[in-house]
Amino acid sequence: MSGDRRKEIVRHLSEDDLDRLLMESTDQKLTERLIFIKRV
User: Fold this and answer.
1) Which of 2, 6, 26, 31 has the most neighbouring CB atoms within 10 Å?
2) Cβ–Cβ contacts within 10 Å for residue 37, how many?
3) Helices marked H in 1-40 — which ranges?
């Protein structure tokens, strides 16, 4: 087992999809997660 923990990032949502979900979100926890994902 190697010590390399890096993983390939796979993008499932487009930037526009993330923006739309952020605008529609009413759940604070979900909003925080979406903001975190958008920053990465």
Assistant:
1) 31
2) 14
3) 15-24, 28-39
**Cα(17)–Cα(11) distance, rounded to whole angstroms?**
11
Query: One digit per residue, pLDDT tens: the chain, 40 residues?
Result: 566 778 777 788 899 999 999 999 999 999 999 999 888 8
Phi, psi for residue 26 in degrees, rounded to 5: -115, -5
14-25 exposure pattern, b = at least 16 Cβ within 10 A, e = fewer: eeeeeeebeeee
